[in-house]
Amino acid sequence: MTETQQGGPSSDGPAPVSRWAAVADAELATLYARIPQVACQGLCGPVDCTDDIGMGPRERQRLRQAGVAMPTREQAKQRAAAQGQGPCPALEEGRCSAYEVRPAICRIYSATEGMACPHGCPVIDSRPLSRAEAFALVDAAAAAGTSRTATSAAAFQHQLDSDVGRVVVHWQTRDQQIRRDRSRHTPPAS
What we know:
By secondary structure, the chain is mainly alpha-helical. It is built from six helices and four strands, in the order E-E-H-H-H-E-E-H-H-H. Strand 3 (91-92) and strand 4 (95-96) form a beta hairpin.
């Protein structure tokens, strides 16, 4: 079964992409292009890639279309409380089986300062993102196709620059507050 443009079931071959999905995919492509590439060595394990990840509705739909049924955050948290953290269902033999459509949160892993790959997979031809930049892109990806409809690529790019800039400031402020709080509660060295 596939989905029609209206989202209903159909049994006659691949479904055409809905207008909403096409807009969201274009927005996601623009966002993902801002995330540095990582030279993945295929060494990930269940500790590296878990099933408790946040993502937007289109990112979740794209994974489902690739054959990966991700639990919701709530489902993952309930299972973790009962059985412990679960591995990502897309993880197969150390690699992501849905690598091309993986959500932003997965893309920033190893491409962000302070989130280096434990297996040494390097960022390619770029600098790592700051944590503020990374989380701004994750926030924007979660909203892809949901709250705005860009009339052109240029209009979306302008809106994205504005949104990401605003969220970067939010995360930078948050990180500064956390550092201040930690320094107040850290005992002096003896």
